[in-house]
Specification:
- The protein has eleven helices and no strands.
- The protein has 205 residues and is mainly alpha-helical.
- The protein folds into two domains: 57 residues, no CATH class; 99 residues, no CATH class.
- The longest helix is centred in the N-terminal third of the chain and has 30 residues.
């Protein structure tokens, strides 16, 4: 089965072939069929290439390996392998509470390229820092982490809904007045500054 990348490559090659034909044999434009072929080669195929390219990129950007491909995100990728049950992302990743190949996207969909316009602007700033400036050593989420990302999976889950601690503050959690990662709650997140002092787990070891 041909994937979206294969389709994109085929569309690009076909577009280039048709464009070359138009340059080598301008007479091909003559007649109704020639005009239709020209329209397809210069308008329809480039539009399909753009649409397929965007779709392919969107699918690729959901992958964990894409997220941690930037140098500044490498330590965040390593933190997914911390051998400590207190590390929230590591436990979600290692126990497949989120899809391992989409771990970052599963927990951070609010400010990725799929988020709001304001969040997309933050993403563009991070790309600028990556390639044209110096990224910060510790990356902070603009406006903090939204509980909706946790509740997307945990809301209505029995273990969450029947937990006495959660019950006592449920309204505050669901309205984001109290963060799930508040001190004393699930506050051990990536903690990349301590990576050199912790044991890492690897599948198969």
């Amino acid at each position: 089965m041909i994937g979206s990348t294969g389709i994109l490559v085929a569309l690009i090659v076909l577009t280039i072939v048709l464009a070359a034909m138009f340059l080598v044999r301008p007479s091909i434009h003559a007649g109704a069929m020639g005009k239709i072929l020209t329209f397809v080669g210069l308008c329809v195929l480039p539009a399909l290439c753009l649409g397929t390219g965007m779709s392919t990129h969107m699918q690729r950007s959901e992958q964990t390996k894409f997220c941690i491909s930037c140098h500044s995100m490498e330590d965040y990728g390593k933190s997914l392998y911390v051998d400590n049950p207190k590390y929230l992302p590591a436990q979600h990743f290692q126990n497949h509470r989120v899809p391992a190949d989409m771990a970052c996207y599963s927990c951070h969909t609010d400010y990725t390229i799929y988020g709001t316009l304001k969040d997309k602007i933050q993403g563009i700033k991070r790309i600028y820092l990556q390639y044209a400036s110096t990224p910060p050593k510790i990356i902070h989420i603009h406006d903090g982490y939204n509980n909706l990302q946790c509740l997307h999976c945990h809301a209505d889950a029995r273990s969450f809904e029947e937990n006495p601690v959660h019950i006592a503050m449920m309204d505050s959690l669901k309205t984001n007045q109290m963060s799930c990662i508040s001190s004393g709650c699930h506050d051990m997140v990536h903690n990349v500054a301590q990576l050199g002092n912790v044991k890492l787990w690897r599948l198969g070891q």
